[in-house]
Amino acid sequence: MQKNNLAIILSGGKGERFDSNKPKQFFKINQKTIIENSVDKFVNSKLFVKIIIVSHYKFINQTKELFNDRSIKIIEGGQTRQESVFNGLKEAKKFKPSYVLIHDSVRPFFSENIINIILEKLNSFDAVIPSINVYDSIRYSNKIDYRDLPRKNLKLIQTPQGYEFNSILEAHNKFKNQKFTDDSMIFYKSKKKIKLINGEFSNFKITTKEDLKLGKSLYKGQNSMNNIRVGTGFDVHKFKKGKFIKIFGVKIPFDKSLEGHSDADVAFHSIVDAILGALCLGDIGNHFPPSDNKWKNKSSVFFMKYAKDLLIKENFKINNLDITLICENPKVSKYKNDFINSVSQALNLKKELINIKGTTTEKLGFLGREEGVACQVSVTISKDEY
Ligand code: CTP
Ligand code: MG
């Protein structure tokens, strides 16, 4: 039979140890608030008929702005964590749930798998509590004392914790005037059995600013591969009469010039196209139509800066640029450093991340017949902030 599961997410604290005017649950990891990171996992699991967020009364509107899903109810918390949970349970009663999961919003790193494990175990136990062993040395320490505490039987208790609904409500009713820091203790004091399961080391509670830093780097580590994008660019310009060509923004004396609507900088155009490609934002022609006279003879440094600004706007940074310039003549190898400097400056990118190669087509085809210059570019970009 499908069980009626409900989740209570606690956000009633002010995060005083976090040292900020804003409660820690409203700080962002991966461009989403910590509370959204937590709630989204419950929503995405599709295993809950109702989610109740217990919010600090001062931040109820701010919380409502984040969530407008009809299956999410936002209510006021109490003075202590225990009171906030109790408020959540009283609200939950209206929905007659079979099982309830209680979770601290400030633990955004639990896996969706732990939700499955807890719900599955609730078919056999009335309270399922994730915990982890303590491996560090534990000492009791104050001004006069420094003592060993045997760690063998010590456990760190986490959330989400799962309960048979009526049993946890009864336990909270019984101990409503006491102060426990988690519900497993209340449940246990109520002479009910609890089942400890393996928690997750990465599911730590964000308490201080340092925890937030760790959380961000953890997220970055987990997702850096997923966020890498590749873009390619290719451009050709043909020769016309002239005295110099401009490539990579550098003027090179030559007995011909390159033809084009703007300044015909085949290399910069190709780089811009590669960046636009990686951002999935079309091509240079979409952004600067040749039909528009505004772009006539425009310096391509402008297009490069435009691409750089788009990267910043979309929160991406360039990991590396690999560029191949293809022409028989002019010989460009002696300008390589000038090219790299110019790209580096236009994109505000470290020189070590830019590679420029020159090649010919062995006299074959239009490039071999020296009818023009081609340039191809690969770029990889990744999300800049978490
Ligand atoms: N909590 C709650 N109601 C309270 C106090 C705490 O719902 N009156 C919630 C917090 O929002 C948090 C969880 O309980 O999700 C764990 O508490 P804790 O880490 O102590 O958070 P804060 O109480 O906000 O932080 P601090 O103790 O540093 O002020
Ligand atoms: Mg607290």
Outline the structure in words.
- The chain is built from 12 helices and 19 strands.
- It has 386 residues and is of the alpha/beta class.
- It has 2 domains: 203 residues, Alpha-Beta Complex (Spore Coat Polysaccharide Biosynthesis Protein SpsA, Chain A); 157 residues, 2-C-methyl-D-erythritol 2,4-cyclodiphosphate synthase (60s Ribosomal Protein L30, Chain: A, 2-Layer Sandwich), CATH 3.30.1330.
- The strands form 5 sheets. Strands 1, 4, 5, 6, 7, 10, 11 and 12 form an 8-stranded mixed beta sheet that branches. The chain has a 5-stranded mixed beta sheet with strand order 16-13-19-17-18. A two-stranded antiparallel sheet has the order 2-3.
- Strand 4, helix 2 and strand 5 form a beta-alpha-beta unit.
- It is elongated, with a radius of gyration of 30 Å.
- The two termini are 41 Å apart.
- Bound molecules: cytidine-5'-triphosphate and magnesium ion.
- Cytidine-5'-triphosphate (CTP) binds next to strand 1 and helix 3.
At a glance:
The protein is α/β, with parallel strands linked by helices and 386 residues long. It is 31% helix and 28% strand.
Please give the largest β-sheet.
8 strands, mixed
Strand residue percentage = 25-35%
Task: Kindly report how far apart the N and C termini lie.
Answer: 41 Å
Helix content: 25-40%
CATH C-level category of the largest domain? Alpha Beta
Mean pLDDT: 94
Number of continuous helical runs = 12
